[in-house]
Amino acid sequence: MSANMKQDFGAKPTERRDTDNYRAEYVTSFVDKWDELIDWESRARSEGDFFIQVLKDRGAKRVLDVAAGTGFHSVQLMEAGFDVVTADGSPEMLAKAFENGRRRGHILRTTQADWRWLNRDIYGRYDAVVCLGNSFTHLFRENDRRKALAEFYSALNHDGVLLLDQRNYDAILDHGYSSAHTYYYCGDNVSVAPEHVDEGLARFQYAFPDKSTYHLNMFPLRKAYVRRLMREVGFQTIDTYGDFKETYHETEPDFFIHVADKKYVEEVR
Question: Is 228 helix (H, G, I), strand (E, B) or coil?
Fold first, then answer.
């Protein structure tokens, strides 16, 4: 395979713990299979109108999708009437997103941007920033996480909202996994399973029906840690949902969704 078709984690894959590695992980052959992994129609059914309703409840109109991937959420939000700007750090993902949008009758406004320098590359302010698809987990250094959240905060209007999701790494770290504890996206016969997990790395394997496999090295973010970073950056109110539900047992959800409001709330004395 050519360089842009095959992943290369080196001789010791579990030692690749670097934020910038995401650029090499999303090779063309993996990106070409990403929609097979998530299955747009199935994902739309499973998510329902959760994100759309959160944004409409806050009167949001202008949305920045900073982790566009292959464009699923950008297209969903456009079709719901939002003014969307689409960004991602991977040029391969952005190309696929643009192609997917055009196939569905939309012209996505795409920009390649690293979150750590988001406001250098993205113009204007937004009512909402969405960072979905477990994307924040690609940041391995705390300084990178703080800088990215600060950039998200700065990109928002004074009463804007950040929507950010993550895997339930707490359950994986604290309770482990077995051969039966496998995580699936919506695609048929496509499996996503943790291959190696420790406090500093979650290495996931993505296996497809044609027997091809790919990997992503990610930082296992704990829920309370992410919420604390959001508060320290300045977000005033943070609601965390488990698989789109307000109430849940901590070990049950596959994903947590954080809804963080920038709007200033004065303390009542």
Answer: helix
Q: Which strands, in side-by-side order, build the sheet including 110-112?
A: 110-112, 83-88, 62-65, 126-131, 156-167, 255-261, 237-242
Rounded Cα distance between 185 and 269, Å, is: 47
State whether the Cα torsion 218-224-226-232 is positive or negative: negative
| List of residues 6+ apart from 261 with CB closer than 8 A | 58, 159, 160, 161, 235, 236, 237, 238
pTM above 0.85, yes or no: yes
Phi, psi of 196 (to 5 degrees): -150, 135
Give the model confidence (pLDDT) of 195-252 as tens digits: 999 999 999 999 998 999 999 999 999 999 999 999 999 999 999 999 999 999 988 8
Q: Identify whether the C-beta of residue 50 lies closer than 8 Å to the C-beta of residue 244.
A: yes
The residue to which tokens 């296992």 are assigned: 220
Show the tokens assigned to 184: 């699936």
Q: What CA–CA distance (Å, rounded) separates 205 from 225?
A: 25
